[in-house]
Amino acid sequence: MSNFTSITQCTELNNRVKMPWLGLGVYKTQEGAQVEQAIADALEAGYRSIDTAAAYGNEEGVGRAIAASGLKREELFITTKVWNSNQGYESTLKAFEDSRQKLQLDVIDLYLVHWPVAGKYKDTYRALEKLYKDGHVRAIGVSNFLIPHLEDLLGSCEIVPAVNQVEFQPFLTQPELQSYCKDRNIQLEAWSPLLQGHLDVPLLQEIGHKHGKSVAQVILRWDLQNGIVTIPKSVTKSRIIENADIFNFELTTEEMEAIDGLNENRRLGSDPMNFNF
Q: Do strands 229-230 and 77-82 pair parallel, antiparallel, or not at all (unpaired)?
């Protein structure tokens, strides 16, 4: 997976919908001016994919930024997610309607189950299947689902999730989950790819130095070459631009393997097998 030469490139999901390899994440980006400016800067830098969630509290700002952009709707790829407290069949349908109104969009490109809430995620996903069949979403998927959750879901769902968005970073590469999703044509997507800012990793600094790139750029390029969609979050214009400047160099096989070797199965976020929110 080394032929990544442009920010406009997309992966083809299992239902033939095209999703950009690189997007802007807006987790912890403040509603209002901050999120609107970050998206304006990202769109100016060539990004076309924006990832939000009901839980982020900034869907309205995302909607305003999209409306203000002047871009055609079909040029953009917008993801949002149903939060845990709204999981269940009817409540998910209602939550979707709320998100859709806040985003000012008739159709959402990708709608995800945010976390695998025990006893609820199957009914939640059934609601996503209805939204998909009714044409309100172009693709559906899950977030933070590990193999046991996916096994359980795939045993009863009609539509295989198009995407599984999980924590994926150099200290947590989840190789078994990568293989599992690849075998079932579920696109893996990385949240918090940039180690939540803990970028002082000597190996990554060394590789970056060799290519004249930052540690962040090395990690994002590693994501792409692993075939993983990535959505770095930033509110700083220079960083938003820098994060997109990853299409003019390539990591060698040796460098890829060295970064893979940093894996310690170390989570920076919550454990999907044990969370209480």
A: unpaired
